[in-house]
Design a protein that fits this description.
Layout lengths: L4 H20 L8 H11 L6 H11 L5 H22 L9 E2 L2 E2 L1 H4 L2 H20 L7 H15 L4 H16 L7 H26 L4 H28 L2 H4 L5 H5 L4 H5 L1 H17 L9 H12 L3
Antiparallel strand pairs: 1-2
InterPro entries: Isoprenoid_synthase_dom_sf (IPR008949), Polyprenyl_synt (IPR000092), Polyprenyl_synt_CS (IPR033749), Prenyl_diphosphate_synthase (IPR053378)
Protein name: Farnesyl-diphosphate synthase
Cofactor: Mg(2+)
């Protein structure tokens, strides 16, 4: 493998996931076309597709068909896009730029953005539940259950609530969250969906419990490293590099490990988490090299 191996693999997977999303979110005629246009604006034409890449590479460890893996990858990207649409709303982070283009509520309007997010979430579960995703209904049910848990009140939505509460506490001068509390907030808000993305391929492949657990733990450590890297980018990168507004975490009083520990200690923490993520893949041998490389890329990226 060379330095170009992972970037090329990420680009190839992103293209395949983009094609899957395009097929699963067609542009119909009629009055609902505006809703589909907003959904497509949220999902298509940008993004690293890291969560989808995790599904595809995890599924490859167990010989799962590419069609099944791409459908699950697309479903997760839909749900992730829904969360970004709602996160960008004026009632949340009030962002105007996402992936280098106007956010959905800016390109359309707030009501359409809310509906587009709602519809993307529903469509994600419709894709997972469809027979084309897997012939075994038990596998489809497990995928739906695990995604619901990752996205719900004990996952992404719960983490967003904790994030908002932390901002409110900062506004009234309350003591900042400690390292453990920030870690839990970020595990729920970001980590749970990345963890499920890593585990989904093992679910598709009906993998042994030990290997499924290894991918799950890999995803958990990777998700934690990813969030720290994201916080570092918010503090150090430009909007041109990231495709979204930067410098907002500190201004909003958000609870981050960068704010608590400082940049240098946060970087050390991210490196430690990436190393732990790689270690969880030891039993997979060379076939998991792309996933190992992804752990390093996650903390080195500039976008």
């Amino acid at each position: 493998m060379t330095a170009d191996t992972l970037p090329e693999a990420l680009r190839a997977a992103a293209g395949e996931i983009e094609d899957a999303l395009d097929a699963l979110l067609p542009m119909p005629e009629g009055p609902e076309a505006r809703l589909f246009a907003a959904m497509r604006h949220a999902c298509l034409g940008g993004g690293k597709r890291m969560r989808g890449f995790l599904v595809v590479e995890g599924a490859a460890q167990f010989g799962v068909s590419k069609t099944s893996a791409l459908r699950v990858a697309a479903a997760i990207e839909m749900l992730h896009a829904y969360s970004l649409v709602h996160d960008d709303l004026p009632a949340m982070d009030n962002d105007d730029l996402r992936r280098g283009k106007p956010t959905v509520h800016r390109a359309f309007d707030e009501a359409t953005a809310i509906l587009a997010g709602d519809a993307l979430q529903a469509q994600a579960f419709a894709v997972l539940a469809a027979e084309d995703t897997h012939s075994d209904p038990a596998v489809r049910a497990e995928l739906c259950l695990r995604l619901a848990l990752a996205a719900g009140p004990r996952g992404m939505c719960g983490g967003q609530m904790l994030d908002m509460l932390a901002e409110e506490q900062a506004e009234v001068g309350a003591p900042p969250l400690g390292e453990a509390a920030i870690g839990r907030l970020q595990l729920l808000k970001t980590g749970k969906l990345i963890e499920f993305s890593a585990e989904a391929g093992a679910i598709l492949g009906k993998a042994p419990a030990q290997q499924r657990q290894a991918l799950c733990f890999y995803g958990r450590e990777l998700g934690a490293a990813f969030q720290i890297a994201d916080d570092i980018l918010d503090a150090t990168a430009s909007a041109e590099e990231t495709g979204k507004a930067t410098g907002k975490d500190a201004a909003a009083g958000k609870a981050t490990l960068v704010g608590l520990l400082g940049l240098d200690r946060a970087r050390v923490q991210a490196e430690r988490l990436a190393a732990q993520a790689r270690a969880h893949l030891d039993s997979f041998g060379p076939r998991a090299d792309l996933l190992r490389m992804l752990a390093d890329y996650t903390i080195a990226r500039r976008s």
